[in-house]
Write a structure and sequence with these properties.
The structure holds two protein chains of two kinds. Chain A is built from eleven helices and two strands; from the N terminus they run ααααββααααααα. By secondary structure, chain A is mainly α. Chain A has a single domain, classed as Orthogonal Bundle (ABC transporter involved in vitamin B12 uptake, BtuC). Chain A has a two-stranded antiparallel sheet. The longest helix of chain A is centred in the first third of the chain and has 31 residues. Chain B is globular. By secondary structure, chain B is mainly α. Classes of the chains: A mainly alpha, B mainly alpha. Chains A and B meet through helix 4, helix 9 and helix 11 of A and helix 4, helix 5, helix 11 and helix 14 of B.
């Protein structure tokens, strides 16, 4: 073990913060869907994977990156809406665990479909943005961009929810899903829109991840459990809580990985998560129950 | 009620399963090893699924049982490889460790009433934690490549509990295990604990108000269930003579356990077994179909291996939407209705947590 308070430690800390932005964005979509529809998409990371493949192939097919990113976001938004329409809607009135499991089935399907269509090879989009070097520390631009865009995306979602009519309706139905239909709101439509937005956020995350990571069918298993952990830690459905939790978890991973092996960073994060849930079952920042 | 009586039908059924290897030997003398291997896999997984369903049927949908099978397999093998401890000691130790982990995680869950989504996600974290520990201890466990129990003599040994080369022996070991699992399932089904747990899964406060120690009941079933899964994992390791973090621990295993048990039917004794038959035959059937068909092979290539996962996932979605009682559960219902004895009498108490209006929603 070689863990000292040197420049590499600071680098790990800062990289952890950059990672947190991305994780927070990933958690945001899941939290939105949970907060509004009360359903956990176990397959959320797989929707991100679909977006990553979409962007990768569009870009390699000659589409400029920004347009490819928009296409990817549209693709995942459609995927979110389809997921809700075909899979979630039939089980909306069943116990929560059924809804969790049914999306687990979707996880299998998406992973298998990706393996069959794209193969098991690691794919890289091949864009290099270089890195920023400050005082012996090095930060890749793709991470910095990911952090900034993730913050921007979160701000946009916040503005959408606070300032627009549709956003207000979504917040209202999240507060009381029995009363809103009585007020003449079509909850089915709102759920569909929310699912599309949740999917779109996965697409935005995919845009940022495609610049940093190789794509392969099992990538969801690497990120999925982490995202759930962040959401639960922040209080499922609590977007600000998820944001803070992302920073806590990513520090565990970044610092743990720099001091020990990568797995131990993750393992400690999961252990911390379990203990935290025992102490505060509603999440560290969950006010509502 | 409290005494177990074996009906004629059950006795005939058991005898038939016990005689299966002889039938295989008679029908497929050339490929006996392959078919026996398939049967052993089915029985071992049936046992693990049955162990899970002890909890699952009471609304304790754990996604953490991949951790218990992993603990069972790895503790046994590591004790053998590095401490030279025979599995006769190693397996009880592994089972004990697993039960202790189950209780350690279960206790706060039950005291703080962590249910539904939260319970599922928390147990999922346990699975990941155990898998990461296995990968992290790569000096002993071989990391993500997995490891093998050191072979003792010619591979068949009572002392080392190794029996892989003799498939017939393996079959009867798996058979005994499977019968043991069913016996425990029935014991729980006929105990007072079942009523207590069923009441608790419907409404915890009401159950507690009539004097049920909800936490204690849940802990008992959790300890039993995690111990059984560890035992299954340990025997599986001894049979496969290979363990890897993805094959016996991890999220994939956890989800497979849950899904196969649900596909078969949670509330009938043979449900998990039917689930195991269904999933193994499906995977194997598709594999054989792909290997045998030049057309499929040419069009899918190596990725055809994912086809069974695809079909599996699709079926699971359909099962949970249209048949939450599983194959055997739904079949039994149809049969009862067909016989004109719509299960009016038994149904209210047996009503599934999966189907009943959510007794516990979030927190």
């Amino acid at each position: 073990m070689d863990c000292q308070l040197d420049i590499f430690f600071v680098e790990a800390l800062l990289n952890g913060i950059l990672l947190a932005g991305l994780l927070a964005l990933l958690a945001l979509g899941l939290n939105l869907v949970f907060g509004v529809i009360d359903v956990v998409w176990i397959c959320y990371a797989e929707i991100v994977m679909v977006g990553m493949y979409g962007i990768n192939y569009a870009y390699k097919g000659g589409v400029p990156f920004l347009l490819a990113a928009l296409l990817g976001i549209a693709l995942t938004a459609a995927a979110g809406a389809i997921l809700h329409y075909l899979v979630i809607r039939p089980v909306l009135d069943t116990p929560p665990i059924n809804q969790l499991l049914v999306t687990g089935g979707v996880l299998f399907v998406l992973q298998a479909a990706a393996t069959m269509v794209f193969g098991i090879e690691f794919k890289n989009i091949g864009i290099r943005l270089g890195s920023l070097n400050v005082a012996d520390m090095s930060f890749s631009w793709s991470r910095i961009w990911a952090f900034l865009v993730a913050l921007g995306g979160m701000l946009l979602l916040w503005l959408f929810l606070k300032r627009t009519y549709l956003g207000t309706a979504i917040r209202a139905i999240a507060q009381d899903r029995q009363i809103m239909p009585l007020m003449g709101v079509d909850s089915r439509k709102l759920y569909l829109v929310t699912s599309a937005i949740g999917g779109g956020l996965a697409g935005l995350a995919a845009t940022l991840m495609v610049l940093q990571y190789d794509i392969y069918p099992q990538i969801g298993l690497q990120f999925g459990p982490l995202i759930f952990m962040i959401c639960v830690l922040g209080g499922l459905g609590n977007m600000i809580g998820g944001f803070i939790a992302a920073f806590i978890i990513s520090q565990f991973i970044a610092v743990g990985s720099s001091c020990f092996h990568t797995e131990w960073g993750y393992a400690v994060a999961f252990l911390f998560f379990m203990v935290a849930i025992f102490i505060r079952p509603q999440g560290l920042f969950g006010g509502k129950s | 009620m409290s005494r177990m009586r074996i009906s004629v039908g059950a006795a005939v059924g058991l005898a038939a399963v016990a005689a299966l290897p002889l039938l295989v030997r008679f029908l497929f003398p050339d490929s006996e090893k392959y078919y026996l291997h398939l049967l052993v896999q089915i029985l071992l997984w049936s046992f693990i699924y049955t162990g899970w369903s002890l909890m699952g049927r009471f609304g304790l949908t754990s996604l953490g049982h991949g951790a218990f099978t992993g603990i069972g397999a790895y503790v046994t093998v590591l004790l053998w490889n590095f401490a030279g401890l025979t599995p006769w000691i190693g397996i009880p130790v592994a089972v004990g460790v697993s039960a202790v982990v189950g209780v350690l995680v279960g206790y706060p869950c039950f005291v703080f009433r962590i249910t539904g989504h939260y319970f599922g996600l928390l147990t999922l974290a346990l699975t990941e934690f155990v898998r990461l520990c296995i990968v992290g201890l790569r000096d002993y466990t071989g990391g993500s490549l997995g490891t093998q129990p050191a072979r003792y003599g010619n591979g068949i040994s009572l002392y080392a509990v190794q029996f892989e080369p003799d498939r017939m022996l393996a079959y009867y070991i798996a058979f005994v295990l499977w019968v043991f699992g069913l016996y425990l399932w029935l014991r729980v089904d006929r105990s007072m604990d079942r009523y207590a747990l069923e009441a608790a899964s419907q409404d915890e406060d009401a159950a507690a108000s009539v004097g049920i120690d909800v936490t204690r009941e849940k802990l008992k079933i959790t300890a039993l269930s995690s111990a059984l899964c560890a035992l299954g994992g340990a025997v599986f390791a001894q049979y496969q003579m290979y363990i890897g973090p993805e094959t016996i621990a991890g999220l994939g295993v956890s989800l497979n356990i849950v899904f196969a048990a649900i596909a078969g039917g949670l509330w009938v004794p043979l449900g998990p077994t039917v689930g195991a038959v269904f999933t193994q035959v499906l995977a194997e059937g598709l594999r054989v179909a792909i290997q045998g068909s030049a057309f499929l092979r040419a069009h899918l290539g190596n990725s055809a291996l994912a086809l069974d996962q695809m079909v599996y996932g699709l079926l699971l979605i359909l099962f949970i939407i249209y048949m939450p009682k599983g194959i055997l559960g739904t079949g039994t219902d149809w049969w009862r209705r067909w016989r004109g004895r719509a299960a009016r009498t038994a149904e209210p108490t047996r009503r599934s947590a999966l189907r009943s209006p959510a007794p516990t929603r979030g927190l």
